[in-house]
Amino acid sequence: MNRLLASSLAVLALGAGAAWADVDRDEAATIAQRASNGRVLAVDATDIQGRPAWRVKVVTGRGEVRVLLIEAATGKLL
Questions:
Q1: Domain spans, the chain
Q2: What is the DSSP letter of 63?
Q3: Which of 6-10, 27-31, 44-48, 50-54 has the lowest mean pLDDT?
Q4: DSSP characters for 20-41?
């Protein structure tokens, strides 16, 4: 039960962190689309080493599904 509570709090914290990010959800999707030359399937807020980031799932022209991580503060691919 404590694990569930911790997970829920982490999700809430990520959502709050993403709200003030310099790179928003749509910009992250555009960055990932350009970097992969693919189609964006999903964009989710996440945390990489204590920093807000975007996890973007794309499908390439070859049909490969890839996950790209984009730093929310800079828009840099991780």
A1: 2-71
A2: S
A3: 6-10
A4: T-SS-HHHHHHHHHHHHTSEEE
Tokens, residue 74: 């800079």
40 is written with which tokens? 């964006």
Model pTM score: 0.71
The position carrying tokens 């992250």 is 28
Other CB atoms within 10 Å distance of the CB of residue 48: 14
Token pair listed for 8: 């829920």
Backbone angles phi, psi at 10, to 5 degrees: -65, -40
Asked whether residue 4 carries a pLDDT value surpassing 70, the answer given is no
- Residue indicated by tokens 């749509």: 26
